[in-house]
Amino acid sequence: LDAQRDGQLNVSLRGQGQTQVRVALTNRSPHRLQVVLPPGLVAAASTGQGFQSMGLGLPTDQPGRFGGIAATETQGNGFRSIAVEAATPALAVAPGQTVEFSLPAVCLNFGIPTPTPRDHFVLMDVTEFTNDARAIKALRSLATLGTSQGVAQAVVWNVFNQMEFNQLAKQANKYLNPAEISVAARFVSALDASPDQTLVDPDYFRQGRILVRVNGDRSLQAEAARLHDELSGKSLLGLPVQSVGAIAEDNSLPASLLLDVNLTPGDREAQTRARVLVRYNSALGGWTRMDTVSLTLDGAPGTIQADRLARALDEALARAFVSSTPASRQPGLTNYRIVNRLPMTVRSVVLRTGNSEGDPVTTVDRIEIGPGRAAMTQIPAPIAIIEKVELSGL
To answer: Which of 34, 142, 295, 343 could pair with 316 in a Cys bridge, judged by C-beta atoms 3.0 to 4.6 Å apart?
Structure first.
């Protein structure tokens, strides 16, 4: 923005449909420029132009992803948290050079016509577009922390246009699914719970998302109670587990997963079975049953430790709710379609590139597959089996 005002940089923005804006940057200076695209930019339509203004994410090679400049780092407890003070990426533009690219975008005016390539915008900071501090923090947080396109759009229509979530479910179901709306509701709750911060604290999206209850038949009640207590604080799907008892049957915990784990003896003496009823909390209708997952662990119930049960649950849930299917092949590379049936955004996927345990794995990080959505990824292997997934919580 400074370079544009100083005449060093010419910035041209054109419409590119519902989810992108086309950007052209021309370096008018005699020097090589490192062009920073900070979170919280708006492609604004001038008054009377008759098409939507767009909130901008950051450059990405992953369709369906909105934002995400914050680095992830491992904390002492083994969980992954988000460092919101991460460096903003920059684009190198040589003197006289024009660089063109697309930015992910969300519509800021519900019901206004979608921009086309004939439509031109003015680039500005969100503070120039609105003086609503809540809206400013929402757009900057979405771009910084990163989420999927649908979740970001649901948040923006709620915050910028005061569209209630039930209203979005009825009027915007062409663009949004119920799980995306539920995650957006969680974001808005976090937005309002951190009024004095410039960005939403990412810890809000981690806590109270994976709720677990462990029960057992009469002979296993003591071991079930032990595991129930020991699971609290463990990592599952990349988020901390919260062991719970009775829960409210309303939508006060939107976009949370509830795992009811029931332990039974296996067919052999040194074997334990677990049947897991998976439910999630929708902002539109409270707790909803998703599916039942079964798993078997070698070892008598008394020998099963919480870490081992968490790893088994992690693998079983990942494979039950996230799938990888080859879409096309070329020499040395396979394009896989990754489908996310979980009601939260998948941040990363670990794929095993062979049919046997111990075969090499590859990690696709910051893929941001929204709930109920799919994404493509390219793997240098003919086989890619879901090994593990991590949820962003947003």
So the answer is: 295
Q: Decide the pairing of beta strands 239-243 and 210-216.
A: parallel
> What whole-number distance in Å separates Cα of residue 93 and Cα of residue 31?
9
Q: Which residue has the tokens 């693998």?
A: 315
Report the alpha-carbon distance of residue 391 to residue 394 in Å, rounded.
8
Nearest to 60 by CA among 31, 89, 99: 89
Parallel, antiparallel, or unpaired: how do β-strands 120-125 and 374-379 relate? unpaired
DSSP tag of 150? H
Report the predicted TM-score, pTM, of the whole model to 2 decimal places.
Answer: 0.90
What distance, in Å, lies between the first and last C-alpha atoms of the chain?
29
**Token pair of 65, please?**
């992803």
- Beta-carbon contacts of 339 under 8 Å, excluding residues fewer than 6 positions away, are 322, 323, 324, 325, 373, 374
Q: Could you report the per-residue pLDDT of 244-287, keeping only the tens digit for each?
A: 998 888 777 889 999 999 999 988 888 999 999 999 999 999 99
Dihedral angle of Cα 150, 156, 159, 165, to the nearest 10 degrees: -30
**271 CB-near residues (< 8 Å, 6+ apart):** 265, 296, 297, 298, 299, 300
Q: Alpha-carbon distance 105 to 111, whole Å?
A: 16
Q: How far is the C-alpha of 3 from the C-alpha of 53, rounded, in Å?
A: 22
106-129: buried (b, 16+ CB within 10 Å) or exposed (e) per residue? bbbebeeeebeeebebebbebeeb
For the record, the structure tokens of 288 come out as 């909803």
